[in-house]
Amino acid sequence: MLQSSRQPMPAESVDPDHKAFLADYMGRLHRATAVDDAVFARISATRATWLHTREQGGRVIFIGNGGSAGIASHLAIDLAKNASVPALCFSDASMMSCLANDYGFEDWIAHAVRLSARAGDCLVAISSSGRSKNILNAVAQARTMKLDVITLSGMNADNPLRNLGDVNFWVDSRSYNIVETTHQFWMMAAIDLVIGRAEYPAS
């Protein structure tokens, strides 16, 4: 087996500018994920909403764009597999292209909700900016169907998504990666609260 001739970089060899950047970056994440009773209450309310959804025979539907869509898919899998709460994510490329082609990108998720959601379901709407038209339209559709709604947003405090849900999470950050990481962290905490453990086997 070939051995690399390169020597490992000593752990203490960090460019000072990089260290300063990363210290600031980690500080931003620490501040964004700082917890208080209000955050605890929202996570607890999310757990209660999901369990109520399961008791009614409903499903938790996660929606998002881009990075938030990736988070939505991850959360749907973990909630269903690890917490035994039925969940799904509108991430099928054929569905997306069909509905966007027929109704436009701003309305495709609303039509996915119209076609696939049913009484007793819960919609979890994720948008870092809180301004994505297709997410806002999907929430409006969910409201007409009387679904429970949980929102996750960030950036500006006055973004339109922030107050549209029964439970609303907002991250006080202007960094997309910090907002997305915090959204995923909070929702993973809610999933583990359903399970009742922070550590468990993968299967």
Automatic annotation (TrEMBL):
PROSITE patterns for the chain: SIS
PANTHER family xref list: PHOSPHOHEPTOSE ISOMERASE (PTHR30390:SF7), SEDOHEPTULOSE 7-PHOSPHATE ISOMERASE / DNAA INITIATOR-ASSOCIATING FACTOR FOR REPLICATION INITIATION (PTHR30390)
Gene3D superfamilies, per the entry: Glucose-6-phosphate isomerase like protein, domain 1 (3.40.50.10490)
Organism: Bradyrhizobium daqingense
Descriptive protein name: Phosphoheptose isomerase
Gene Ontology MF, one: carbohydrate derivative binding
Residues making up the signal peptide according to the UniProt record: none
Lineage, uppermost ranks: Bacteria, Pseudomonadati, Pseudomonadota, Alphaproteobacteria, Hyphomicrobiales
Entry annotated with the keyword Isomerase: yes
Highest taxon above the source species: Bacteria
InterPro entries in alphabetical order: GmhA/DiaA (IPR035461), SIS_dom (IPR001347), SIS_dom_sf (IPR046348), SIS_GmhA/DiaA_subfam (IPR050099)
Domain SIS: 50-201
Keyword Signal: no
Gene Ontology terms: biological process: carbohydrate derivative metabolic process
Alphabetized UniProt keyword annotations: Isomerase
SUPFAM superfamilies: SIS domain
Pfam family, one: SIS_2
